[in-house]
């Protein structure tokens, strides 16, 4: 037997990696051709926007309501009409409270008409008074369904508002509906057997992302003034990316997670999970963020400090250094980094520094380790709504005949979890060690005044069901949850295929304000959300 030295082993690994990449490229090319042939660019287009109030930011709408330029009833009716127009095509809203919302809007108008509170008081204490919003169907809203996309929870009604919902209601905002998600929030296409599948506003043949996909969709389609999602592996940022909106994943442990279902099973999952805003306009990110964070961490966040873009050090990395089974970064997304670098140098005399953090190629393994729950509940127990556990193989058999109440992805996730649970401790220890090293590398790189620009996702929105063949592409966002950094998706126009693309900006823990400031700057420079067709 011939012994291999270190150099031979390295060469063999490189050859193996190259073969995997080559085979992956062939599979992706064939799959893309197949789906393109199946879907093409056929299908109805989204109805044009007829009412220009729908184009305004939530902050602008709030100002107009409290200064009596428009009534809350008019605004709420406008968004309800928009939802009724788009939802048959997009299937983004799964439950509504239109009648209750209109009554609340009438009460708002009466309050403003009474002049009991000055405009200044309203701006300070009810900054989003009369403004309609939506949230995903896994965040509790008192009196509404709370299904998390699980068929067995179809009759579950929330008894209390989640913290974030209560905070927004206290600020005067009016909840008008719940939006679609993936089954138990564990996939990056929003589809389930209870509410069906949500379609992308820019091309209904494509996905909206997940799990906050319905929320990303309704924001892009101008069906809600602002939205709230949750993110444990990119579930805010991916829908924001695929739908061309802004979405912020906060620093860990600064926003209460009450009312989120499923709730985190471990301290690590709690660390990874965040609730945050999805909006069309960057100016809404900061005021909404201020409303939902814990008051005792506000001094640490320094949200009222003005951020000077010229004082930020910019770094960027165009890819994950070659993860196995993750798609190459699309040329249109790679080009964004050159556009951004050129803009920073020309407008602010900032030289963005290119970096190459090699450990990003372990992103998938890092996220999967972070999601492990040794003491349960297991995913097959979650699929039973914690009432025992399902027989996954039997459900898969039923799924083949369209008789299962579960999605293929949900069942596959349960099987994958069982395989992951059998892996040995030495591999987990190695992955955790590499995670810790990567986190320290990024902390040292960014310091207190730096940001990292990184792809939110390697490709524009795939066709429906295509993610099955690109299952691990979520790793670009998932790894940031594991590492515990804040990150914001920034829309950067449309790809050559006519669907949105963007990048995420990442900062050190508690430096969310830098992400939000960069989002505002890039919106000003590159245009932000691309409005759908407008009817004059």
UniProtKB/TrEMBL annotation:
Active-site residues from the entry: 136 (charge relay system), 211 (charge relay system), 235 (acyl-ester intermediate)
Keywords: Hydrolase
Domain Amidase: 75-516
Molecular function in Gene Ontology: hydrolase activity
Gene Ontology cellular component list: endomembrane system
The name this protein goes by in its record: Fatty-acid amide hydrolase 2
Organism encoding this protein: Agrilus planipennis (Emerald ash borer)
Designated gene of the protein: LOC108736122
